[in-house]
Structures are given as structure tokens and as C-alpha cells.
Write a structure and sequence with these properties.
By secondary structure, the protein is α/β, with parallel strands linked by helices. It is built from 10 helices and 14 strands. It has one domain: TIM Barrel, CATH 3.20.20.30. It is globular. The N terminus is likely disordered.
């Protein structure tokens, strides 16, 4: 088997925050999901996990408003990266988001890794309209998300644009004013969740890091991990062409479970033979969904070594089944760190 040096250095978890009042769920309510998200981040930090990431969906029994959660995690932890994967920019007010994200970043000691994107299909039709947003004439919702993003990036760069009141309640510094609070380093820790070659290149041009999940546009019919590796390569080439000074970061997401006991096998033993799947998004875009991994550790090592996208990414986000509770998810993360990561050279 051809071996390529794996460059994964950071391992985080990604939680969607699902909750349901089912007797089989350990996450019965929104409060359960939020508190357990905080507790899992604390447990993950103690295990040596590098990142705690949270997915955002609106009108759903999942995490929706990320900044209170990110701030709480930041206050309860001291080392772990805290992020999103992703915030749907169709729903966001860029100035309000700049205030909230800077506050969360400062609370955490500048550990925020903020993933943003155009977003995926939501639970309701054009849900962003209920939030007061309209793409405008001759513009799409994707155009609106990118416009919100570009405005947000300018604001967190520290743009001074607001005319001061000549008779303010409190003294102002000289010149025009910027949004406060302000985090000097946050701009370098913004990630774009991309599902295509084109948006990966666009994100590189704007100096955002890249998040690529288990779903992307099927652009050439190749296996998912190869298409994703090609996307990462296109992104890095565009980054170089843009002339950015710093090195970008790239993350990929995967569902990976090491089967080390009977409970693991009961939950995920049937996932051993999963394959990529093809489907349509919004009845227009043909998408490819990456496979899950579930096997004994020695088998996982072989399978993951052959995943070309994981090989070229520097960060791996492990999606967790949060309705199984904090203890099980901590066990699942520890199993990867203990029985899989060392043999792949990740640790």
C-alpha cells in the first residue's frame, strides 16, 4: 500500500447538539444539549483533545445561538480550541456578530476558531427571511451569505467607520469609531465551510482557513476523499496565489469510532461497511457524502491511512453522537487518542 506522510496535528470533536424527548436519548432538552456541550468540552480538554466545535442550525432541536455556548466553554476551559462548524451567514447581522464573537474570543483568551459558511438546507423555507434578511434584487441567498461574510471580516479587522457623536455619553477616542469589543487576532482564526472548488478558492483569496465536512458537491464522480483532497490542494494553491504571509489551516470532519468494547460494537458495529453516498441538495446540486469509519483500532489505522483528505489536512474533527451522553462521547474520543492516533503519527 502506498504510504503518504500524514500531517494531522490537531484532533477535535464536532457536536450538532441534537436533543429529543425520547426515552432512549440522554439529551432530552435544549438545556441538556447546552450543558452537555460544555461538560464534553471540559472532559475533552482533560483528555488532551485539541478542539471543541459546535454545529449551528436554526428552527431545529439543535444548537442555534452559538456565542453563549462558546463563551461558557471558554470560561470553563483554559487550553482547548473552541469553534463552530459552521455558522450560517445567511442568518447573521455582521456587526452584531462581530461584537459577540470578539466577546467570546476575549473570554476564552483568544482561543476561538470560528467556522462560517453559506449554510446548508434548513428546517424551514427561506428561514433567514424570518430573521429580517433579504438577498435583494438579482442576488441569491448564497450571494447574501458571502456579502455578510465580507462585511463581517472588514469589521473584525478593526475598520473604523462610525461617525462619533459630538456630545457622547462617554468620551470617545479621536477619529471614527469601530465596533467594540475588539480582538486583535480573531481575523486569522476565521474558517470558511466549503463544499466546492470555487468556494474553497474564494475563501483562500479572503484569507480564511478552510473547513471541509463529510459532504461536498460531486464535481467529478471520484470517491469522496479524493475529491476532498483535490479541494484542499486547490485551496492551498489559491492561498499561495493570493500572497498571504501566514500558513493556512485546513480541517476535515469524519465519523470515526474505534470498536474496543461491547458497547461500541452494539452502537456502531453495523457501520463497518459503510460507503460514500450520492444525493441531491435543494433538488439542484448533486452532492457526495463521505463514509463513516467504525472498526477495531488496527483496522481503523489501515483505513484512515488510505483517506487522502485526512492525509493532507492539519485538523481532524470527529463528529460525536451527542444523544449518547457525555461519558460515552468522552470514551469514544479517548479511544481514538489512545488506540488509533499514535499509530498514524498524529500524536
Amino acid at each position: 500500500m502506498l504510504r503518504v506522510l500524514l500531517v494531522v496535528k490537531n484532533i477535535g470533536f464536532l457536536s450538532f447538539g441534537h436533543w429529543t424527548p425520547s426515552p432512549y436519548s440522554q439529551t432530552q432538552s435544549a438545556r441538556d444539549a447546552l450543558i452537555q456541550g460544555i461538560e464534553l468540552a471540559v472532559a475533552a480538554e482533560e483528555l488532551g483533545v485539541d478542539g471543541a466545535y459546535f454545529r449551528v442550525h436554526h428552527f431545529a432541536r439543535q444548537y442555534a445561538s452559538p456565542f453563549p455556548l462558546l463563551s461558557a466553554v471558554g470560561a470553563r476551559t483554559s487550553k482547548i480550541e473552541i469553534g463552530t462548524g459552521v455558522i450560517d451567514m445567511r442568518y447573521e447581522n455582521p456587526l452584531y456578530m462581530a461584537e459577540d464573537s470578539a466577546a467570546a474570543d476575549l473570554i476564552s483568551g483568544e482561543r476561538l476558531q470560528l467556522g462560517i459558511s453559506r449554510g446548508s438546507p434548513e428546517q424551514v423555507i427561506e428561514g433567514w427571511r424570518y430573521f429580517g434578511y433579504d438577498p435583494g434584487e438579482n442576488a441569491s441567498e448564497a450571494d447574501m451569505a458571502r456579502a455578510h461574510t465580507e462585511t463581517y471580516l472588514k469589521i473584525i479587522e478593526g475598520a473604523q467607520f462610525a461617525e462619533p457623536n459630538p456630545r457622547p455619553m462617554f468620551p470617545n477616542p479621536p477619529g471614527k469609531l469601530r465596533v467594540e469589543p475588539y480582538s486583535e487576532t480573531l481575523r486569522d482564526r476565521i474558517w470558511w465551510g466549503s463544499s466546492s472548488l470555487a468556494t474553497a478558492r474564494w475563501a483562500a483569496g479572503l484569507g480564511m482557513n478552510l473547513q471541509s465536512s463529510t459532504l461536498k458537491n460531486d464535481e467529478n464522480g471520484k470517491p469522496f476523499h479524493i475529491q476532498q483532497r483535490e479541494q484542499i490542494e486547490a485551496y492551498r494553491e489559491a492561498w499561495k496565489e493570493a500572497g498571504h504571509v501566514r500558513e493556512p489551516r485546513v480541517s476535515v470532519s469524519r465519523s470515526i469510532f474505534a470498536l474496543v468494547n461491547d458497547e461500541d460494537r452494539r452502537y456502531f458495529g453495523l457501520d463497518r461497511q459503510t460507503k460514500d453516498q450520492i444525493g441531491n441538495i435543494d433538488d439542484q446540486t448533486r452532492a457526495i457524502f463521505g463514509r463513516s469509519y467504525a472498526a477495531e483500532p488496527d483496522v481503523l489505522v489501515e483505513e484512515l491511512a488510505a483517506d487522502e483528505a485526512i492525509q493532507v489536512a492539519d485538523t481532524l474533527l470527529l463528529t460525536v453522537p451527542n444523544q449518547l451522553g457525555v461519558d460515552y462521547n468522552a470514551h469514544a474520543l479517548e479511544s481514538i487518542l489512545t488506540h488509533v492516533a499514535p499509530d498514524l503519527g498524529w500524536r
